TrEMBL record:
<protein>
    <recommendedName>
        <fullName>alpha,alpha-trehalose-phosphate synthase (UDP-forming)</fullName>
        <ecNumber>2.4.1.15</ecNumber>
    </recommendedName>
</protein>
<feature type="region of interest" description="Disordered">
    <location>
        <begin position="209"/>
        <end position="235"/>
    </location>
</feature>
<comment type="similarity">
    <text>In the N-terminal section; belongs to the glycosyltransferase 20 family.</text>
</comment>
<dbReference type="Pfam" id="PF00982">
    <property type="entry name" value="Glyco_transf_20"/>
</dbReference>
<comment type="similarity">
    <text>In the C-terminal section; belongs to the gob-1 trehalose phosphatase family.</text>
</comment>
<dbReference type="GO" id="GO:0005992">
    <property type="term" value="P:trehalose biosynthetic process"/>
</dbReference>
<comment type="function">
    <text>Catalyzes the production of trehalose from glucose-6-phosphate and UDP-alpha-D-glucose in a 2 step process.</text>
</comment>
<keyword id="KW-0328">Glycosyltransferase</keyword>
<dbReference type="GO" id="GO:0004805">
    <property type="term" value="F:trehalose-phosphatase activity"/>
</dbReference>
<dbReference type="GO" id="GO:0005829">
    <property type="term" value="C:cytosol"/>
</dbReference>
<dbReference type="InterPro" id="IPR041064">
    <property type="entry name" value="T6PP_helical"/>
</dbReference>
<dbReference type="Pfam" id="PF18572">
    <property type="entry name" value="T6PP_N"/>
</dbReference>
<dbReference type="InterPro" id="IPR001830">
    <property type="entry name" value="Glyco_trans_20"/>
</dbReference>
<keyword id="KW-0808">Transferase</keyword>
<dbReference type="GO" id="GO:0003825">
    <property type="term" value="F:alpha,alpha-trehalose-phosphate synthase (UDP-forming) activity"/>
</dbReference>
<feature type="compositionally biased region" description="Basic and acidic residues">
    <location>
        <begin position="214"/>
        <end position="226"/>
    </location>
</feature>
<feature type="domain" description="Trehalose-6-phosphate phosphatase helical bundle">
    <location>
        <begin position="830"/>
        <end position="930"/>
    </location>
</feature>
Amino acid sequence: MGSEPISEKKVREPFSRAMKDEPISNEQRLKELWHILDLLEIEYKKTSDLHTLISSVSESLTLVWKRRDPKSELALKGLLLILEYCLSHVFDGHSVFEVFVTSLGFNTVIFWKHCAGYIFDSDLGRGTKFRDALLFSLTLYDVNTGKNRLRELYAAVPGIRKSLLGVNAKQFGERYHHLQKRLAKYGSQSSLCSVSSESDAEEGMKTFHVRSGNHSESDGEEDSKKPRSGLATPHFQQRVINVSNAPPVSLKREKTGDWEIKQGSGGLVACVDPVMSKDHENLWLANLGMNINDKKNKRPGSVASESFPSTNTLGLPLIKQTIAEVFFHVLADDDMDAPKNEKQKKAREEMSLLGVLNNYNRGNYKLNPVVVQEDDYNVYYGGISNGLLWPALHNLPEYIVSEYNDEKILRAHWCAYVRVNYQFAIDAVRNSRPQDFIWIHDYHLMLVGMIMQSLDQHLEVGFFLHIPFQPPGEFFSKYSTVGFAVLRGLLRFTKVGFQTHRDRTKYIELVQHYFGTAKIVYDNKMDIYSGESRRLKKGNPEMQTDKTNFQNCQSLNFSVTNEGWTCSLGVFPVSIKNDDFLKFVDLPETIKLKNDIRKRVMGEHPAPDGRFFFSVERFDYTKGIMEKLQAYQRYFERHPDRIGKDVLYQIAVTNRRSVDTYRVYQDECIDLADRINQTFMSSENPSWKPLIFQTDGMQRSELVAAYLAMDIGVVTPKKDGMNLVAKEMLVCNPTAGLVLSTGAGSEIQFTTAGLYTDKEKNYHRISNVFDADSYCDAFYEAALESEAVRAEHGKRLHEFIMANDIERWSSAFLDPSWTHEVIRPTQIETLDDFFSLMMKTRNVRRQIVGRVLKGIPIRSHFAISLRNAKESLEQICKPGTHTAEFKSSPDSDEVAHFEIDNELQEFERDLSFIEYVQSDDADNVEQFVDVSGKYEFGTGFQKKVEKKIQM
Ligand SMILES: O=P(O)(O)OC[C@H]1O[C@H](O[C@H]2O[C@H](CO)[C@@H](O)[C@H](O)[C@H]2O)[C@H](O)[C@@H](O)[C@@H]1O
Ligand SMILES: O=c1ccn([C@@H]2O[C@H](COP(=O)(O)OP(=O)(O)O)[C@@H](O)[C@H]2O)c(=O)[nH]1
């Protein structure tokens, strides 16, 4: 073609279509591409399938564009038209986007530079949301491939990440918050609560700065009240940002239109709520079940059909989408004008929820809702989370919903799962400060760490899995898109906690198997792994042994490094806050309720040796409710002497009915329950009913009364997380018996602690819930056990649980020293050991300097590292001296001596520097500035060693 200008007359300008325009048909797009390919004389097959065409020509177009000749311009247009198509079809066009990005090869940064203008013009001028679509598409690409292409977009388009996160608004918010706190401390009369606009707030800040300046010249008592600033301002305390799908509250709309807010149920909430309640500054992000229903805006093939929650906000959570597609913020405006029409009235009514939330937030930690598209949420919750991940991770593949046999459906649902994780990640980053600890919970949010890292790498993000990790092989063959992303996703958290050693071991095995290059390090210096086999001995100062075992869980440290990321893996059996249950036990109303429940269950005239069995759980197939009912049926067949005496009170709280497998299971259980009652109703004792089956849950106060009323608790899951109810039962009622299956996490923990051995069986263990005969024999044994023996066993379990309160779980997980980033106390034997320790400390020092210079607060584990390093050095000094002794090489007997006075002093100085920057002290920084030039930060020793080696 030489250098003739190419005719582009018929080529449409990319990204020139307004959101309200009719979507472009695939046929039209095909023609546009054919035309460009013809003009560029690129060979192609005239297929009518757009995806096939794009996949086959993307690379050729890239090659022409890269040549930087007269044809390049047109080739770029072709690429932009393809990108426009992909971004208009984020879900159904993702496979083609993957091919497209891959074909760009090493040219992505420059390509994103070229297309940023088109995208921004289109978004601003035509109301499209291509920026958000591109950010999400690249996130999905990274999740699916394990690559890091989103970073290339950040590099190419400065500010895009910040605009997504609303960083400026966030910084403003933080400054404002900080100022409020400082003024509150200072005791100022002028409240900033009335600040209503940005300019007002800035005015407030100015006032503050003037005061601050004046004060620096005064002294005396007044001085202690002064607002101060550390070096690393804005300096705030570390908060816990908790992120989970389930909120700690359940919200219900009353007939009156008022919102009722109640404590949520479920084990996750029960164990995390106490941790959060410790500090009102903590923040919990969760989905409240109110999402964006955007159906009316849907038009296939239009950008709006996959509209993204608006990101142009103050970084505050969004709760309600109004007619004009404007989002209201959680900060409700009470002074709004009267509603203009019905729609506005309805929207207002729903807004009253904000008042409820605000009230909740006032006397509590903060609860902020994460709002997503309703359709996405349904698929994420009822589909991937509870239709695939839940059964797969419990190793119950028979409950994986059958529609996932269709790869297309699986991929489409997976996109929704990723998008909800993406929204949680964005909200978590927006709401976090660099010194916070972000704690993500459970299988719904396994990708949040990975996505958060790509948005802000300064954050420390931990993950706890509340359920088992026992996926079957087919999780990685049949559902590979999901399987590998989940395996990889977990490795992108800073630390990950499992309920049991069994689950962590399984995870490590899978990582080893599938990611051959992953480096797994077991910190054997801190090895208390064998603590697992320690046993509690009868009559021992009981909990001592196990306390050690549990406390040391944090040190059972595995770290895995994969694709440049390192993650610590620990084991933390979850528990309950004992006092939250015990506080109900002795209340007169509880005692009354307990008697009422017992009477209701056992009847007015119970048999003297009749037993009250009690089970309470979510109506879930993992809980083994069907198997329990089958065993109970068998119980009366095998042991007819118990007919007319014993009663099983089963509470199975209906949930997840949107998932087919749950609906079917729940209906089958209810049928069987009815059959049992019909079969065994006794004509001799017509008031007796063998089974009371209830599908409504109980509030905690009533639940405690039921625990007190029962004789024997029955907790027999097939496979489950921890089953906190088992612990709750025995904490509240130490005289109760317990039938517990090996599928329960608590059973694994009890066995580990030696509470079930050949010699001492403190509960009735069910090893196989499918074996109805042995199962019902355990029921029988429990029913015949004397009250004294039952109480003796109950007491042992009670004491164990009391000694392992939830406090221990959370403080072990949150302990800053539990991370691979911490320098552990090291035994220095050779020069190499010595040198490697000093290199590690140099890295820590670099991070400290980097953070202070950037104004980012430093992490508490830096000081732990330096202290450990210093103590390790002191260990090798001759007593009373600063002369270190160690072998010059592993094979040599020669002992080298080094004066390490400077190094030790330097550690002292660094540690006081850390203390200083973490304090509110703004004065006396000179003490840390070395103007003599004699000393280089953290390198003194290295120089000395080099010199010595040269000699
Ligand atoms: O939110 P739902 O779908 O209604 O489910 C409720 C919760 O169920 C699961 O709880 C698990 O966590 C407990 C505490 O660690 C553990 O003891 C139990 O065995 C697990 O099943 C689920 O993991 C939570 O995410 C749900 O919120
Ligand atoms: O009617 C009910 C049933 C359960 N729970 C609480 O829900 C939690 C269930 O936790 P578990 O670990 O046993 O199972 P999960 O539901 O989390 O799988 C426990 O704290 C129970 O006290 C409740 O408050 N009311």
